[in-house]
Amino acid sequence: MLVDSHCHLDFPGLADHLPDVLASMDEKGVACAVCIGVNLEDFPKVLALAETHPRLFATVGVHPEYDDVEEPDEARLLALANHPKVIGIGETGLDYYWRKDKPEWQRQRFRTHIRAALHCDKPLIVHTRDSAADTLDILREEQAAAVGGVMHCFTESWEIAQQALDLGFYISLSGIVTFKNAALVKEVAQKCPLDRLLVETDSPYLAPMPYRGKPNQPAYVYYVAQEIAKLRGISPEAVAEATTNNFFTLFKTAVRP
C-alpha cells in the first residue's frame, strides 16, 4: 500500500478523468492521495474531492507563487482547516525562483501559515525553491518544530535535509528521484532515515521515468517507491510500508483506509 502525499487532482487533466485516475491508483496499490490547496479561490474544489472520495484528503493554503489571489489571514486558514478531511496547512513556503522580487511578502505569508498550523495542530506542507536558508530560518523562528510537517518535492542537498530533519520535518521525494541527473535527490533518498521519508507525485507535474515529459498521476508514485528501494538496496514493499506508516504518523487526523 502506497500513499501519494502531494498531488493536484483538481487541476485540468486530472479532474477531467478522475474515475480513470482512481482506477490507476488501484492497479498500482496506491490507497490514498492528498489533494493540495494552492489558493483559497479553488479550495472548494479541493475539499469537494476529499469529501466525495474516502481515499482522498485535502490541505488548505496559498502557494508562494500566487500573488493575484485572496491573501490568507490566520483566522481564515483556521476556519477552513477545521474540516475533518483537511489534514494539513499548505502548500506554503518560499519561492525565490519565480518570485524573487517579493521576498518579504512571501516571508510574511509563510509565517501566517505556520502560526495557523500551530493553532490547529496540523502539519505544514512546505515548498522551497532557491530559498532553503530563509525557509529553515523562518521555521526555526516561528517554532514550527512544535507541529512539524513535510518538505515537499525535496530537491536540496543532504545538508539541508539534515537541518529539516532536526526540526522534526519529514522529507518527501517525487519523480525527480528517478531522473538520471538528480544526484542530490538520490543521495537524500539513500541517507534519509527510512522512518522520515514520504513519497509523492506532485501530479500533474514531474512524472517519473518511464513517463517523464508526460502528464503525471498519483498511480506513478509506485515508480518513486521503486527507485528509492533500488537506491537503498531494500524491497519496494519495505519502502511502501515505511512511507505509508510515516504518512499516517505525521498526518494524524487522516483516517487510514
Characterize the structure shown:
With 257 residues, this protein is α/β, with parallel strands linked by helices. The chain is built from nine helices and eight strands. It has a single domain, classed as TIM Barrel. The protein has an eight-stranded parallel beta sheet with strand order 1-2-3-4-5-6-7-8. The radius of gyration is 17 Å and the shape is globular.
For the termini, the CA-CA separation is 10 Å
Number of strands: 8
**Unreliable segments of 5+ consecutive residues:** none
- CATH homology superfamily: Metal-dependent hydrolases
What general outline do the C-alpha atoms trace?
globular
**What number is the mean pLDDT?**
96
CATH architecture classification? Alpha-Beta Barrel
Helix fraction, binned, reads: 25-40%
What is the name of the CATH class?
A: Alpha Beta
Label this structure with key terms.
single chain, 257 residues, alpha/beta, TIM Barrel, eight-stranded parallel beta sheet, 9 helices, 39% helix
Q: In short, what is this structure?
A:
The protein is an alpha/beta fold and 257 residues long. The protein contains 9 helices and 8 strands.
Q: Can you lay out the helices and strands and say which pair or pack?
A:
Elements: E1 2-7, H1 18-27, E2 30-35, H2 43-52, E3 56-60, H3 74-81, E4 86-95, H4 103-120, E5 124-129, H5 132-141, E6 149-151, H6 158-166, E7 169-173, H7 183-191, E8 197-199, H8 221-232, H9 236-250
Parallel strand pairs: 1-2, 2-3, 3-4, 4-5, 5-6, 6-7, 7-8
